[in-house]
UniProtKB/TrEMBL annotation:
Belongs to the MurCDEF family. MurE subfamily. Residues 327-457 form the Mur ligase C-terminal domain. Carboxylation is probably crucial for Mg(2+) binding and, consequently, for the gamma-phosphate positioning of ATP. ATP binds at residues 111-117. UDP-N-acetyl-alpha-D-muramoyl-L-alanyl-D-glutamate binds at residues 30, 153-154, 180, 186, 188. Its cofactor is Mg(2+). Catalyzes the addition of meso-diaminopimelic acid to the nucleotide precursor UDP-N-acetylmuramoyl-L-alanyl-D-glutamate (UMAG) in the biosynthesis of bacterial cell-wall peptidoglycan. A motif (Meso-diaminopimelate recognition motif) lies at residues 402-405. The modification N6-carboxylysine is found at residue 220. This is UDP-N-acetylmuramoyl-L-alanyl-D-glutamate--2,6-diaminopimelate ligase. HAMAP family: MurE. Meso-2,6-diaminopimelate binds at residues 378, 402-405, 455, 459. Pathway: Cell wall biogenesis; peptidoglycan biosynthesis. The lineage of its organism: Bacteria, Pseudomonadati, Bacteroidota, Flavobacteriia, Flavobacteriales.
């Protein structure tokens, strides 16, 4: 592709150099620069790409897109001056990969909790309906039947367009992706054409990055503000900030709810650990998913599928055959009769939701033991809140390590303990070693008791001092339960 073709519809202020150059690679990381490369200098959270313009030129970059020209111009390089490099990168990436988001129906799901569950549900629903799709989620990327490892909840805009282009080549017609607040703020979705956008919920999370809840809320809302008039925006009316998402969008507005009147209304009729009997829009069906939070996830997935033009009966049939998402309310039962729930809940709201769901199902004759922790180098404010929730809603809470990263597990645990109310002091203990904490829970449990292991879900590692050490909650539970039942 020539530079002329690549910069079509990219607003620029000035071009220094010729534009008939051949471009074979597009990068925003100067270390990946080579001959026939277009390097885009973007202001990042940790570094400014403009500081590496000369390094990119020295490595053979044919052209450089930037917001300010370097003091020294290299005669062998073409410089394209733009007002906003991140915005330009979105359009450049789309052009480079043939505008793939316009060749399939792209659905984005945002919110604090439920993004992975909803996108995975949608991928499986559309597969059951007979369509090839691409899934871009925290757990994995899937292009039809091909599975690729996931690197970010929302990848950078170059990787996104590359994945979508591969999906188009593979015959996919739909794309389902998680849209994180980091991804929105860092403009990773810039230039993508979304057909449907869905909002799950919003609660306390990522304040280490956004600093205030107000900024976090604004960032989520920005995703809906940028939708085209041809798109559909679907929000959760039961969330107190759900209607905020639709305030300034020009997209077609739709809503869903379990508690209030909405365009898509659902109801949980019966629920146990094996699943739920539900009613959507007056039609009953059974699902193997458990928990009210999953009722919301399923209702949003249903709404998206119907807005994409599918028959309601066909969608409900597809939903009724779904399997649970890995690490999301995943249930196991030991030979000794102990019931385990493995879940990714790592925010106050998610932990509250899953504990509430378990308490709604259990008869109260069984004890509920919760093993959980909080990640290091992340939002400190949610730690005491999670300590309060876990000890309020469990028979016993065992506070342990999650991904401590560069922090000491003991320091994180102290911050969690600070939220425990005096009347619940006797309802918790702390064991920094996660394996030891799970072992203690099993040792304490009796037949029919329920053990919730929360925080890591699908993750099969712990991050400790910059290293990833293998650790899988499900694997550990199965191993210890077998060993301790002998």
């Amino acid at each position: 592709m020539t530079l002329d073709q690549l910069i079509l519809q990219v607003p620029y202020l000035e071009i220094v150099g010729k534009t008939d150059r051949e471009i074979t690679a597009l990068v925003s990381d100067s270390r990946q620069t080579g001959p026939a490369t277009l390097y885009v200098a973007v202001q990042g959270t940790l570094a400014d790409g403009h500081d590496y313009i000369n390094a990119a030129a020295d490595k053979g970059a044919e052209a450089i897109v930037c917001e300010k020209l370097p003091g020294e111009i290299n005669a062998d390089v073409t410089y394209i001056l733009v007002q906003d490099s991140a915005k330009a990168l979105g359009k450049l990436a789309a052009n480079f990969y043939g505008n793939p988001s316009e060749k399939l129906s792209l659905i984005g799901i945002t919110g604090t909790n439920g993004k992975t569950s909803v996108t995975t549900m949608l991928f499986d629903i559309f597969k059951n309906l007979g369509f090839k799709s691409v899934l871009i989620s925290t757990v994995e990327y899937r292009i039809a039947d091909k599975i690729l490892p996931s690197t970010h909840t929302t990848p950078d805009v170059i990787t996104l367009n590359k994945l979508l282009s591969q999906a188009v080549d593979a015959g996919c017609e739909y794309a389902f992706m998680e849209v994180s607040s980091h991804g929105i703020h860092q403009r990773r979705t810039e230039g993508l054409n979304f057909k449907v956008a869905g909002f799950t919920n919003i609660s306390h999370d990522h304040l280490d990055y956004h600093h205030t809840f107000s900024e976090y809320l604004k960032t989520k809302k920005q995703f809906f503000d940028n939708l085209s008039p041809d798109a559909v925006a679907i929000t959760n009316l039961d969330d107190k900030n759900g209607s905020v998402m639709l305030q300034n969008t020009t997209a077609k507005k739709k809503s869903y709810a379990l508690k209030t009147m909405a365009d898509y209304h659902g109801k949980v009729i019966e629920a146990d650990f094996n699943g739920m009997l539900m009613n959507f829009q007056g039609k009953e069906f059974w699902t193997t998913f458990s928990g009210k939070f999953n009722a919301y996830n399923l209702l949003l997935a249903y709404a998206v599928a119907v807005e994409c033009g599918f028959d309601t009966e066909d969608v409900l049939k597809a939903i009724s055959t779904l399997s649970r998402v890995k690490g999301r309310f995943e249930t196991l039962k030991s030979d000794g009769g102990i019931f385990f729930v493995i879940d990714y809940a790592h925010t106050p709201d998610a932990l509250d939701n899953i504990l509430e769901s378990i308490n709604e199902i259990r008869t109260k004759n069984e004890r509920l033991i919760t093993v959980f922790g909080c990640g290091g180098d992340r939002d400190h404010e949610k730690r005491p809140e999670m300590g309060k929730i876990a000890t309020r809603k469990s028979t016993l809470a065992i506070i342990t390590s999650d991904n401590p990263r560069t922090e000491k597990p003991e320091d994180i645990i102290k911050e969690i303990e600070a939220g425990v109310e005096p009347q619940n002091y006797s309802k918790y203990t702390s064991i920094p070693d996660r394996r030891g904490a799970i072992k203690m829970a099993i040792k304490f449990a009796e037949p029919k008791d329920i053990i919730l292991v929360a925080g890591k879900g699908h993750e099969n590692y712990q991050e400790i001092n910059g290293e990833r050490v293998h650790f899988d909650d499900k694997e550990t539970v199965l191993e210890l339960a077998r060993m301790m039942s002998k």
